[in-house]
């Protein structure tokens, strides 16, 4: 049975473009032009994944409001923000509301579909019985590759898909410096240096929320980042 992806986007050309790309990948698509239209559809049945634009019509933060409502209804529904507003403030706002990931509108369609596949893969792996898989352990960290799950001292770290792949890139080769370009490649995102920096800050904060003494990620000025060996 094909999975259903809802697209909440007020620009008709962009909405049609995404819908066509996702149908080619075998997804059922529910396009919605406004928050009200999406709310009416979601009241009947939630889709399997939602892509939301932040600004919807005359509601500059309508997407944030919709995300908040959806997260209150389902803790596990994958939510992806896709927007022209990729400032650090907007990214952090979206992720604080419980979105799983955040991509800017200049993201290519192959990158978008790769991210959707990754979100579904994580959902499937968390629901499946635990199989033999690649697990990285380093001090308090455990990273389960197939389940896309990271724990610190046995407690879950709520990373987005982008953040998971950045941590994986560093943990796989502890002590080796990963440049911003390498982190982008691993996470399948194309963003500016400032956004990579803000991702790293958020990753640190999420670990520090569980352990105030967390200090595993080194910034190597002018070079990149590394997980301590």
From TrEMBL:
Residues 4-120 form the Response regulatory domain. SUPFAM superfamilies: C-terminal effector domain of the bipartite response regulators, CheY-like. SMART domains: REC, Trans_reg_C. The modification 4-aspartylphosphate is found at residue 53. InterPro entries: CheY-like_superfamily (IPR011006), OmpR/PhoB-type_DNA-bd (IPR001867), Response_regulator (IPR022305), Sig_transdc_resp-reg_C-effctor (IPR016032), Sig_transdc_resp-reg_receiver (IPR001789), WalR-like (IPR039420), WH-like_DNA-bd_sf (IPR036388). The keyword Transcription applies. Residues 133-229 bind DNA. The keyword Transcription applies. It comes from the Bacteria. Gene3D superfamilies: 3.40.50.2300, 6.10.250.690, Winged helix-like DNA-binding domain superfamily/Winged helix DNA-binding domain. Residues 133-229 form the OmpR/PhoB-type domain. CDD domains: REC_OmpR, trans_reg_C. One of its GO terms (biological process) is regulation of DNA-templated transcription. GO terms for molecular function: phosphorelay response regulator activity; transcription cis-regulatory region binding. One of its GO terms (cellular component) is protein-DNA complex. Keywords: DNA-binding, Phosphoprotein, Transcription, Transcription regulation, Two-component regulatory system. PANTHER family: DNA-BINDING DUAL MASTER TRANSCRIPTIONAL REGULATOR RPAA, REGULATOR OF RPOS. This is Chemotaxis protein CheY. It comes from Arenimonas malthae CC-JY-1. The lineage of its organism: Bacteria, Pseudomonadati, Pseudomonadota, Gammaproteobacteria, Lysobacterales.
């Amino acid at each position: 049975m094909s999975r259903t992806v809802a697209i909440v986007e007020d620009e008709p050309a962009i909405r049609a473009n995404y819908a066509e790309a996702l149908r080619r990948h075998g997804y059922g698509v529910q396009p919605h032009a406004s928050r009200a239209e999406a709310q009416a559809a979601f009241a009947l049945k939630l889709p399997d994944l939602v892509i939301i634009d932040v600004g919807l019509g005359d509601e500059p933060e309508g997407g944030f409001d919709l995300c908040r409502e959806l997260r209150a209804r389902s803790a596990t529904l994958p939510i992806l923000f896709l927007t022209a507003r990729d400032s650090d403030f907007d990214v952090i706002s979206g992720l604080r509301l419980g979105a799983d990931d955040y991509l800017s509108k200049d993201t290519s369609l192959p990158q978008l579909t790769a991210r959707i596949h990754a979100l579904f893969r994580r959902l499937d792996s968390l629901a499946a019985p635990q199989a033999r898989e690649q697990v990285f352990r380093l001090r308090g960290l455990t990273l389960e590759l197939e389940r896309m799950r990271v724990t610190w001292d046995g407690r879950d770290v709520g990373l987005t898909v982008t953040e998971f792949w950045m941590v994986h890139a560093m943990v796989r080769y502890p002590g080796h410096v990963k440049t911003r370009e390498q982190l982008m490649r691993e996470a399948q995102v194309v963003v500016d240096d400032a956004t990579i920096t803000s991702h790293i800050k958020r990753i640190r904060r999420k670990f520090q929320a569980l352990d105030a003494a967390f200090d595993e990620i080194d910034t190597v000025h002018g070079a990149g980042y590394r997980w301590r060996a």
